[in-house]
Amino acid sequence: MLSQVCRSGSQSFTQRLLPWVQPTILSRSRRVQPSAIRHVRSWSNIPFITVPLSRTHGKSFAHRSELKHAKRIVVKLGSAVVTRGDECGLALGRLASIVEQVSVLQNQGREMMLVTSGAVAFGKQRLRHEILLSQSVRQALHSGQNHLKEMAIPVLEARACAAAGQSGLMALYEAMFTQYSICAAQILVTNLDFHDEQKRRNLNGTLHELLRMNIVPIVNTNDAVVPPAEPNSDLQGVISVKDNDSLAARLAVEMKTDLLIVLSDVEGLFDSPPGSDDAKLIDIFYPGDQQSVTFGTKSRVGMGGMEAKVKAALWALQGGTSVVIANGTHPKVSGHVITDIVEGKKVGTFFSEVKPAGPTVEQQGEMARSGGRMLATLEPEQRAEIIHHLADLLTDQRDEILLANKKDLEEAEGRLATPLLKRLSLSTSKLNSLAIGLRQIAASSQDSVGRVLRRTRIAKDLELEQVTVPIGVLLVIFESRPDCLPQVAALAIASGNGLLLKGGKEASHSNRILHLLTQEALSIHGVKEAVQLVNTREEVEDLCRLDKMIDLIIPRGSSQLVRDIQKAAKGIPVMGHSEGICHMYVDSEASVDKVTRLVRDSKCEYPAACNALETLLIHRDLLRTPLFDQIIDMLRVEQVKIHAGPKFASYLTFSPSEVKSLRTEYGDLELCIEVVDSVQDAIDHIHKYGSSHTDVIVTENEKTAEFFLQHVDSACVFWNASTRFSDGYRFGLGAEVGISTSRIHARGPVGLEGLLTTKWLLRGQDHVVSDFSEHGSLKYLHENLPIPQRNTN
């Protein structure tokens, strides 16, 4: 075993380790103490996580979400990760990113170790340069010849390349880690260092001492002297160090590490060779699953292949170390593959000894797709029958539902704010309203899927139809709203869509029983799997990346949830609104009797709703009038906190707290009041500070009202009506999956129609396009045909 410590440490401990190093060299870089390091966060754009890191080693982590608690981590860098595509030289950009991520984790108080390839590639680059330089000098001495001889580079022996490259590779790591005030140490090992008991104890002691002093050990096989690997040379219960994969596994187990990250040039482990048509990335791999995997060829460089990696990973897992195999050349999530893995994100293949009790979310997605297609083929009456049965179950099983909801409320007491507790709560009246809404959906579902929207005769015996069809698989993510589950499920059933539901853990008991009732209703026509409730520990961000399984994401919750999902969704459309900043403009010709009723209902009836009033715009002529005083008195009685807009504050000697932002969704008994000069001023304010959700005018002047209705560019615009009418049930849609403020496909409360798209059906008789050419025998007719009326009774 050879060990070398980089020269960027403090004199106190470096002199103990390397007494022969000159003080002048030591003074080049002052080592920052660990206590100081943990406050250095400004040099990296990688998120800094603060989590408890104390853990007793002995059993691997069961779930990805637990990886954030890993304290001791080994990162294995494969040859394909470290080297350039030409296999001659290092991929400096990737190495710099890896060093930054390792430094971030080290500075969080973790103990990081690197097992790295690259010495052979780095040495090959240096030796080729030397050979070319030498040949060019020799040719220059024979310049009298008519032409220079072609310079041929001989085949370079790997051990010689390793000997030439090891010092340069370590110097590069040293320079990179120094940028983050971190010291690194090189350790070269061979198989004998693990099989000789004394050498193994020496290695173990050296590594523990380095970790104790907050130094990152960089470990590699000593390729300059290592003998060729012997096949099947593993000892009983011990993995032989044949390559850096087996070295990393052996090191991880010897050092009792919590996590081994193996970086390669593939995304992880696939069920068949990557690149083949049916290859699927395996999210979680369990011992015993090897028989279901077909291994491809090994990577373009390096000694091991995926089979060697899996063998090493399983050996480490058996020794109590969690393992993730991922792509270190093209990270998929944020570009920071190592920190993404430690944060528990769905990157690569995670090796686990604990199989989940139910299906994986990928399997649930496939079941929802298959079940949804079967659902779409049912007769409209059959889909309506399922929804009617679900409505009956909501009232028949009322006691069981309320009991489950009571458990959720008891567990959430003290943890959730009052508005969220109100959303979480179910009651007999809520369940009755749900059942009524579901029966409305059942009635409207009779003429949804397969409805003909357009018929055109293209030519004789060539007819085209445009018909409604389901979107596919919907992912609905909702917070603290168990009543959302049967509503959304009924809409998905009516529209023939498969459905994945992800509810908040605060409503887990309620969601579970409501989902069971939904599946019971679906079972009457054999489509139980069309609606799936995701109960695994999947992060929302991971679900948003299932672009091959999900066709539309619908978030139901806080504005922060919607923004996070819109940001995380890659390649999947998101239907929804990030904010519900609803305005009410009180015109100079408003009715005194109407204003206070409308303001009270819009703000106070349910302030946590997305359609609650947030900004009240008052015409300036109404200031200091009885109408204005009545509004203020009513808000005071209802205990609404008032925030004054800039213009409103300028009219007052002693004003309420001035608003911090005119673009605020309070979601509580708080209201911004602002003064405007005219209806056009109100419209301009709404367009500047609103969220295109719901906006209202209160006036007795019809011309002013129509001007407001036509010019305000929001999903819902009302005249003399509460903002709270912006709701699928109140619109007669039965229910809604959400309110959309986007301008594509659906806008406003999204009911059954918003969950449908179209397809084109063309029926012909041996028609070909060439028959319609200039000299063809047929001509286009493009005649509109009558649309047949479907019997909806």
From TrEMBL:
One of its GO terms (molecular function) is ATP binding. Its EC number is 2.7.2.11, 1.2.1.41. It is found in: Mitochondrion matrix. Gene3D superfamilies: Acetylglutamate kinase-like, Aldehyde Dehydrogenase, Chain A, domain 1, Aldehyde Dehydrogenase, Chain A, domain 2. It comes from the Eukaryota. Keywords: Amino-acid biosynthesis, ATP-binding, Kinase, Mitochondrion, Multifunctional enzyme, NADP, Nucleotide-binding, Oxidoreductase, Proline biosynthesis, Transferase. GO terms for cellular component: mitochondrial matrix. Residues 71-327 form the Aspartate/glutamate/uridylate kinase domain. Bifunctional enzyme that converts glutamate to glutamate 5-semialdehyde, an intermediate in the biosynthesis of proline, ornithine and arginine. This is Delta-1-pyrroline-5-carboxylate synthase.
